[in-house]
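2 proteins. here.
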Amino acid sequence: MIAQLIDLFKIRIGVMMAFTAMAGFAVTPGTTLSMPEMILLACLVLASSASAGAFNQYAEKDLDALMKRTQNRVFAAGHFQHSQYWLFVIVGLLAFSVLIAAWVFNFAVSIHLFLGAFFYGVIYTLWLKRRSVWNIVIGGAAGGFAVLAGAAAADPYLAPASLLLALVLFLWTPPHFWSLAIALHQDYEQAKVPMLPVVVGDKRAAQVILLNTIVLVAVSLMPLFWELGLGNIYLVCAALGGSYFIYKSVRLLGNPGITTAKGCFLGSLVQLTAVLLGAFLDQLT
């Protein structure tokens, strides 16, 4: 039961979103929070992300049943009953996180929490995923809102560094998911989901991934040229992580297959972790 709930609410993704929110807070000058407040902020981001993740599974029961990777998800496999009860739970979880964020922190935090869940749950899941190759490009804005939610807890008007991290998350999401989509090409094709590799082919998708990754890394290194509140530790971490992701993207372009796609997917996680960890460490010096 616990493992199924973790899967339903996509807790691993929620933890990552909470981590990005903490990075957004760390790089934003302004209000300081106590440890209990920091924990609460992370939990609220996790809760809003969990609501969006659960709604994604609720709305995609039919798609999940068609794909090997997702056919054992709780609704697709029948572990949980696909009833309106779950909609009340999902909406209630999001409403709770948004209202508590407005009460304890400020209205800006709650707005960013809501927008993150809305972009993933409604714009990506309901409106775009089954219809457009741009699904993950536009839906990818959801990750950026987690950064902004954390940043807004320090200052509702945000800061250049937090806006940069949000942009990095936005640019990071497409190559991250497209790499996975190459590895799972047959699944997405069978489910008739217009992910980029299904629409244009793996080779062309690998070219787009490499170009996107180069732009992503270039944007992450913008503090080299403009004073954005991020220093040398951040830049070293961003350069190392970005170089690794580019290397994996080049390998994928040379041989667009399942193994290299999984390697590129891993490279994206390394790059994002390096950027966020660098942002944290930079603020400690």
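next one coming up
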Amino acid sequence: MSRAKLEALGLNLPLLPTTSVGSFGKPDDLVAARGRHARNEITQEELQRLEERATEFWVRQQEEIGIDVLVDGEMYRGDMVAYFAQLMGGLTLGGLVRSYGNRYYHKPIIVGEVKWPGPMTVAWWKRTQAMTRRPVKGMLTGPYTIMDWSFNDHYPTRAHAAMALAREIRKEVEALIEAGCKLIQVDEPALSVRAEELPVAIEAMHVVTDGLPAYFFTHVCYGAFEFIYPAMLELPVDNWDLEMSNSGLDLVELFREHPFTKDLSFGIVDVHTHAMEDPDLVKERVARALSVLPAPQVWLDPDCGLKTRSVDETIGKLRLVVDAARAARRSLGGGFATSEGGSAPLPNLPPTDGAGKAGARKRPTNR
């Protein structure tokens, strides 16, 4: 169904399309410039020129590597929630709180009625799409995560805050579609923090996506999915982008018990290690994906955003993804699996490549 939707949108992608989650590392001169801009030492125009140069660098790298669906790299953002809170009415930035490791973000505070200020990401999507003939994803943070990662000093309940955010984020989605964007990722890394609130997140995503002509992704990372699966599949998106490799592909066993019914961007390289995986290990991870999902449902990418990795590490991780996808396509063409839905037996599949059974997983973090 989702591949038919892609074709209806005019997107002719190969089997096992490759992409990435969204963020890449910023070059040193841009990091320094963002600090100078915060101190009013350079203008917004000077900062934007550096952001555009860094964006084009990552577009060219993705093209050269062979990624099928590109991202802008988020050179114009610091944090995935604070970026939107700075722009939207009704929110203000609070003090620094720890996100993970030695990374911090300014936690937003909802102080009034949430308002869409007009396009927040459209200009960057248009700039990036103009740099390449390959499709570029629109990149947004979802209403449930913005609500969960903010203090709510205005709405009577968390659910009211999530719905208000959803109505305004839908306006950004509509603006992206009007600009020509056909692939839109709405990240919800907070989705599994409170299993009892899953219905709130699902209702909010319905507000964001229902009836709109685009192919929707959601990225969710490092959560306790065993507590919300398979109910989480009710989230109204076409493609789930999930961290898989960092936790030893433990979700695969959940998929055996309850089949995964959406498209899946299957993370086949771990972004939280400097080490480059052995190519054969990455290929085994692809085989594991194809042991539980029909090939037309599978996309391949890194586990999470690559902003914590160096340029060389990012390029190396993306090359591993593309090389593994190409090898799998050759195997599928040779009768490894059918493209109509059912997978043929895959040889020498390891039982796991890490943690094994589903269990405690890392809490969601800023990607």
